[in-house]
UniProtKB/TrEMBL annotation:
Biological classification of the source: Bacteria, Pseudomonadati, Pseudomonadota, Alphaproteobacteria, Rhodobacterales
Domain of life: Bacteria
Record carries keyword Hydrolase: no
Protein's recorded name: NmrA-like domain-containing protein
Annotated keywords: NADP, Oxidoreductase
Signal peptide: none
GO MF, one example: oxidoreductase activity
Membrane is among the record's keywords: no
Organism annotation: Rubellimicrobium rubrum
Domain named NmrA-like: residues: 2-198
UniProt-listed Pfam families: NmrA
């Protein structure tokens, strides 16, 4: 194993020597997503790497607004620079992670209270993919010589918050109330008001993410069937695997 440090170009040179493909899975602030990834790109280019997969793994932030969700803005800025590197570039887009959106800290699925809480009508649709399936498709895409540079989309399910609630109810036998916190436009107004009063770009970061989920277009050119024997798990199967043993 070779350890690399995004702030240490010498270590990045060691880590990229003799490497054909670099997969970036970093997370953090500007010093990581922007400066660190660009340092990794420079090392990859110096050492003859053929292809790089930036740390995208998200909703289609290329189609989303700027100045709403800082981590997406940083990725978009890094990707614009990486596109000029001369390397092959694959942008893996998987929507949200099922494991994250359904986790208690996301504030959407509250099984203790028997509720699903969300902004909007509950019928707005978005893409979700499990972390494991995103990993599997990323590994195959990284080594797929027939895959052209550009966006590579995979989606376990395109669904709504009501669909999520239905799947969790079916898996657990537990009824869940659907609680809308208000219209999507009200969420947008509240975030804009918060931004005007508080310049911290991480203020209400979870709700900023949810606004992205509810307003960006669905993933395009989804490639769920590209690789024989591999299909992403739909959310109802994920829910059964996560909670079905409790029923």
């Amino acid at each position: 194993m070779i350890e690399g440090d995004l702030a240490d170009p010498t270590s990045l040179d060691r880590a990229t020597q003799g490497v054909e493909v670099v997969v970036s899975c970093v997370q953090g602030g500007p010093e990581v997503i922007l400066d660190g990834q660009l340092a990794l790109m420079d090392a990859a280019r110096r050492n003859g790497v053929r292809r790089i997969l930036p740390s995208d793994f998200a909703l289609d932030f290329f189609e989303g607004p700027t100045a709403l969700h800082l981590p997406f803005d940083l990725r978009k800025r890094a990707d614009a620079r990486i596109a000029q590197s001369g390397l092959e570039v694959i942008h893996v887009l998987n929507g949200g992670f099922m494991d994250v959106v359904a986790a208690p800290f996301a504030g959407i699925l509250d099984r203790d209270a028997g509720a699903v809480r969300f902004w909007g009508t509950g019928e707005e649709r978005f893409d979700l993919t499990s972390i494991e399936d995103t990993e599997r498709f990323t590994a195959l895409a990284a080594l797929d010589r027939n895959l052209a540079s550009g966006q590579f989309a995979v989606s376990g399910s395109q669904l709504s918050f009501n669909d999520m609630a239905d799947a969790v109810e079916a898996a657990t036998g537990q009824p869940l109330r659907r609680e809308s916190l208000g219209p999507v436009e009200e969420l947008r107004r509240q975030i804009e008001a918060t931004t005007a009063l508080n310049p911290n770009p991480y203020a209400r970061i979870g709700e900023r993410y949810q606004l992205f989920m509810l307003t960006v277009p669905p993933l395009r050119d989804v490639q769920n069937t590209r690789y024989d024997g591999l299909r992403p798990e739909p959310f109802h199967v994920f829910a059964q695997r996560q909670w079905g043993q409790e029923a």
